[in-house]
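#lab-general

N.A. 3:47 PM
ok so I finally got the sequence cleaned up, no stray characters, all 195 residues accounted for. can someone with queue access submit it? mine expired

B.Y. 3:52 PM
send it over

N.A. 3:53 PM
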Amino acid sequence: MTTPDSDPVVGTLAKSLHEGESMHFIRHGDTLVELGVRGGRYMIRTRERTHPRLKAFTGVPVFDHDPTFIVPGRYTAFHAPKVVPIDSFRSDTRLRAELVGEVQFELAGHRASLAASRNADGSLTLSFRDQTDGVQTASWRFVTVKDPGTNGEVAIDFNRTLNYPMAFSPHAVCPAPVPGNRLEVPVRAGELMPR
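B.Y. 4:20 PM
back already:
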């Protein structure tokens, strides 16, 4: 066994992490072990680059590109970020989301608003449910939009909607959208449910 940097592990290796953090912990042969904290509990994930399933993976199916799913929107920041409890893919794990504002837009003739979280590069993540959930797509998905800057204008390209890791593994701990982040139209754009 070695550290991720290939230093031999001798004795006990101990690490302490905060909520939401993850790190590469140890390597055992071709397997990398990740350590993380979700919902106040430690978890481990194993990653093996030479696993037969990974070698057989041919990609994630997607809807055909549809320009009608590229829509303008307007971002409005909250006066202060709101930290709210949210569900996760695991019924025994609750998480928290820091919401910084909301993005309003119109899609297929319906006005909509999605609460947003901010990424380190200033971009926004919009996690949402829609009418394709569990039928054509995973239980929920997300789309990222560029930093809205000072004018608040954004372009939402739902063709770039992605699955969370839960679409690929029943052991994933993925944040659910806040209850209000539900679109009343089917978003037939972006990634489909993996085969």
